[in-house]
Each structure stands twice: as structure tokens, then as C-alpha cells.
Amino acid sequence: MRLAQLAKDERRPRDFDPREYISTWTEKDLLHGHIVDAWVIIFRTRGCYWARASGCSMCGYVNDVAQEVAPADILHQVDTVLRKHESQPLVKVYTSGNFFDDHEVSPEVRERILHELGDRCDKVIVETLSHLLRKEQVEAAMNHVRELEIALGLESTNDRVLRQSVNKVWGLKEHAHATDLAHAAGATVKTYLLVKPPFLTEREAIEDAVRSGHEADPHSDTISFNPVNVQSRTIVDRLFRRGEYRPPWLWSVVEVLERTRDVKAHVKSHPTAGGMVRGAHNCGSCDRRVVNAIEEFSLGLRRDFDDLSCECKDVWRAYSEMQEFMLTPADPLAVLET
Known about the structure:
Blueprint: H1 3-9, E1 23-31, E2 34-42, H2 49-53, H3 71-82, E3 90-94, H4 107-120, E4 123-128, H5 135-142, E5 147-155, H6 159-166, H7 172-185, E6 188-195, H8 202-216, E7 222-227, H9 235-241, H10 250-259, E8 266-268, H11 287-298, H12 312-326, H13 332-337
Parallel strand pairs: 2-3, 3-4, 4-5, 5-6, 6-7, 7-8
Antiparallel strand pairs: 1-2
């Protein structure tokens, strides 16, 4: 069965109130070299068009979208969530899809969001697929905000990984073009790269992330390494339930960060569900300590991970070697336990 069809078959659309935003919270991030409170908003839209057509192998955000959302519905969400602003200077706007897809977020709604948030925050971050970005869209956005960062999900610079693992057909060429458009208009670019998409062994995943980081560096102001977490109703979830996928070890994330310290872009990672069985994790006893160290590194509070150690680091090395010996990306520990 083709990967594209399998990804689509995993979806289970549900009914949500299109007038209710998904979530909002505050987290720490960097702004001009200083740690600040960042306001995160997830608006409920109709979601990513690619997820509806097929979708990425690891992405389950489509499960939180509404089937149809009118512009008036999103504007109602905007009015509701704006009351929750508490002077955070940085805001991250997510839609479980693409902010610059006119079919998902109309130009009028996009203008209203940017205008309202631009009045309240010093910097606005939005995300979109690179091939959807248009020059006039970025130029119009810059009229409403002081600083704009556009986050682009590149995932990998390896076309084979993109097509056969992630189920994406856009790569570094489209990413570089979108970056040029953003920079020409005065915006900055954050590049999302995956750590351990499905069907890669632990060692292959590390090498792919490190190589992708260096190749994406000329087209990035920030590089965010995203360890894959197991989201429901995805190909990754299906593999996980069969014992054929394990989220990356936190030691793998640490190695990727250590080996990309030489890039010019700011390198960071915020492991979703870090330390949990469906997120990047180690043995359990050292997980919180390593996750905290990764967060500190991302915020510029530490330069290395030399002070971290645990007996499970040897298990991680053996795990990586065993996968190569077994000639499979399946979880060797799960295989041995069955």
C-alpha cells in the first residue's frame, strides 16, 4: 500500500465547535538574546490541506481541526483569545496547518490576526508550508507587525527521507525559495527538522538530522530539531503499537545538538512529551535531567552536555548498534521482549 494512502486511512475526522480555539499557554523562549514569556495560540481552522489529501507520517494535528471553519468563526476565536494576553512580548500562532494558505486562513482574517497581535507583541511567529508562501503575502504581513518569523517544516534535506519516511514532496529547493522571499520582505525564518522519522534506525536518524542541519543552515535564522513523538491516528502511531517504532532517545537529541553547534543559525529543541513513552526518552531515571538540559541549551543557558551521564547511555549505544545488526529500524528491545 502506498504511504500516502496509508497516512490518509489512519485519519479519524471528528466534529469540533469551529468557534472555539484549540489551546493557549505561555512558555519560555528567546527574544533578542533574552529569555522572555512566549504566548502560544492554536487557532482551530479546517487544518492543513496536505493532511486532508494525505498527510505526513508523524502528524496528528489534523485530528484537532474542524471539518469546516468560516472566517467569522476564526474571528470569534481571535476576539476570545485576545482577552488572555498578559503582556508577553513574543507570540507563536499555530493553526494545525498553514497560516499563509488563503483557503485555510483568508487574507482578511490573516490581516486581523497580525494587526491585533502586532499591536500587543514585539514579535509574531507563524508557520506554513514553504511552497505556499507568496511575496505579496509576506509584504502585507510586515505592515502589521514589528518583527515576523516564518516557521517552515522542512523535516529533512534528504529527498528519499521526505518521500518514503515523512510522506512529503517538497524539499530544500522550495524551502530555500521561501526563505529568500521571507528575507527580502524583512522576516526571519525558523526551520523545523525532525529527529527520527519512521523507518530510520536510531543511527540513521541522528546522521540525517545532523546533515540536514548543516545543509539547511544557509537558509535558516533558527533551526529547531523536533524529536518525533507518537501522535494518535498516524503511521508512526501504527508502527509504535506494533513495536516497530520507538521515539528517539534523548541521548540522540543531545548528539544532534552537539554536532550542529557549528552552524550559524540559532539551534534549539523543545521535545514534545519529552521523558514520556510516546516522546523522546531514555531509561526513565535520567529523563527529566536530560530534558531540562536540552531546554537550557535552547535558551542559551548552557553550551554543552558534558555534565550529563547515566548508565543507560551504554544501552543507547548498544541499541543503535543492534538495529544495524538486525537490519531493521524496529525497536530491538520490544522485539526481544515479545
